[in-house]
């Protein structure tokens, strides 16, 4: 406990230093632009071309007009950059104040942790937390490392809503072969998907503005509002790396029996291991109990990234064409370094007997009996848009024409039919652009079918 608090305190102090460096870089960029404006303002005065009445040529006037136009454009750019710089600097001041408050709190907690063993009150174990309640899925995204599709980012609130809906669809598509619960013994019920989007807002907005992905900070704010408008989505500004927060949630909620899957996007494995060594495969309790729930998303959809993620031993999947350019310019371990890191960590001294079947260590002390903590998850009700009391067989039959090659089955939702249909083929203006799409284009939808599918 004490060592953990020391690491967190060190992380906060390092964050303070990085904030100061960031503000310093902003001021340097602003000074550079101001110097360019001053130079251009002085240059026309020093070499003012003569007017036509003084023997000058028309080319001289055109050249001067072009210089004035460029000067005005630079002045506008300096003004816009100055406004953004002022806003970000104000936010950086607020964050430094928050960091100081949290650092003071960490110092107090560290002092209490050092005194606790003397009074015979050891810190509680995180692995002893049990949860019960409705099934749910956890999706943890490092938003400072991976971007959603850039065209959606530039749409603000509308793009945020579209991303939230598409994310749910991708996760449910990945889970299409798993039925976790059954309502009334006949129909499968999907768990609720809880999404946490971690990001370093100040640094991320600065990069998005510099690369011209967004035109202003308001566009990013609107995008977050749209994304968080989904009832189970949350955006968290961590003002630093997201991996420690992701690792903390994996340890806190990973053992919950009602947590069925954990999707992790954009997190570097070496930083996860550094933040929490319990995530290494050599930690048998975590690897056996929580490892099967973990799914790493290959956001870049490259073979190299897939190989890196596969060293964890967890399942790796992709969400095709969902994520855009990576913004993660942090140094990262290579494939060989990750393999060496995983293999060099010794196994725990306590042998595990029948870990996969019994999940109990040999001669391990029994956990004290206690009442489980109930986690209340509001279920997401997503019925097909059918009239109340309608015959589902007839309703599904009305969604396709009589000559359609494929028909919808009433036993499954439209997005998880067999074969799965390609929504880009039906709703994207250019249609599906994949040369060999693995989804079906041969559902001949009626106008009613298009309306119902769009609502889904």
UniProtKB/TrEMBL annotation:
Signal peptide: none annotated. It comes from Rhodotorula diobovata. It comes from the Eukaryota. Residues 39-60, 106-131 are annotated as: Disordered. InterPro entries: DUF7923 (IPR057683). This is DUF7923 domain-containing protein. PANTHER family: CCCH ZINC FINGER DNA BINDING PROTEIN (AFU_ORTHOLOGUE AFUA_5G12760) (PTHR37543). Residues 135-265 form the DUF7923 domain.
């Amino acid at each position: 406990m004490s060592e953990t608090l020391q690491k967190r305190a060190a992380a906060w102090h390092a964050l303070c230093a990085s904030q100061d460096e960031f503000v310093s870089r902003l001021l340097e960029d602003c000074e550079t632009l101001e110097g360019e404006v001053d130079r251009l303002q002085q240059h026309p005065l020093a070499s003012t071309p003569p007017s036509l009445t003084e023997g000058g040529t028309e080319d001289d006037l055109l050249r001067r007009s072009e210089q004035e136009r460029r000067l005005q454009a630079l002045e506008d750019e300096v003004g816009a950059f100055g406004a953004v710089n002022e806003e970000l600097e104000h936010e950086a001041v607020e964050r430094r104040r928050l960091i100081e408050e949290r650092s003071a709190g960490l110092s107090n907690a560290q002092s209490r942790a050092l005194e606790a063993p003397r009074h015979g009150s050891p810190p509680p174990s995180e692995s002893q937390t049990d949860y019960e309640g409705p099934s749910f899925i956890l999706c943890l995204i490092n938003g400072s490392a991976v971007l959603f599709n850039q065209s959606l980012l530039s749409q603000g609130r509308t793009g945020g809503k579209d991303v939230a809906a598409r994310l749910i669809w991708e996760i449910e598509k990945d889970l299409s072969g798993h039925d976790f619960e059954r309502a009334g013994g006949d129909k499968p019920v999907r768990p609720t998907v809880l999404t946490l989007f971690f990001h370093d807002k100040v640094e991320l907005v600065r990069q998005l503005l510099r690369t011209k992905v967004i035109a202003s900070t308001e566009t990013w704010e609107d995008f977050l509002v749209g994304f968080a408008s989904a009832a189970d989505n949350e955006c968290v500004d961590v003002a630093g790396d997201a991996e420690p927060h992701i690792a903390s949630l994996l340890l806190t909620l990973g053992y919950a029996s009602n947590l069925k899957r954990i999707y992790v996007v954009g997190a570097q494995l070496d930083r996860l291991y550094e933040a929490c060594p319990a995530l290494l495969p050599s930690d048998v309790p975590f690897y056996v109990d929580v490892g099967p729930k973990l799914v790493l998303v290959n956001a870049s959809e490259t073979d190299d990234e897939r190989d890196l993620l596969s060293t964890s031993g967890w399942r790796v999947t992709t969400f095709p064409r969902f994520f855009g350019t990576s913004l993660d310019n942090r140094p990262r371990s290579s494939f060989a370094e990750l393999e060496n890191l995983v293999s060099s960590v010794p196994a725990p001294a306590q042998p595990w007997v029948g870990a996969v079947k019994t999940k109990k260590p040999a001669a391990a002390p029994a956990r004290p009996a206690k009442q489980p903590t109930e986690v209340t998850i509001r279920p997401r009700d997503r019925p097909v848009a059918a009239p109340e009391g309608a015959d589902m067989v007839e309703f599904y039959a009305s969604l396709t024409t009589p000559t359609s090659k494929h028909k919808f089955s009433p036993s499954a939702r439209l997005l998880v039919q067999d074969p799965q249909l390609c929504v880009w083929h039906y709703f994207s203006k250019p249609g599906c652009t994949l040369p060999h799409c693995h989804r079906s284009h041969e559902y001949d939808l009626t106008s009613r079918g298009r309306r119902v599918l769009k609502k889904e």
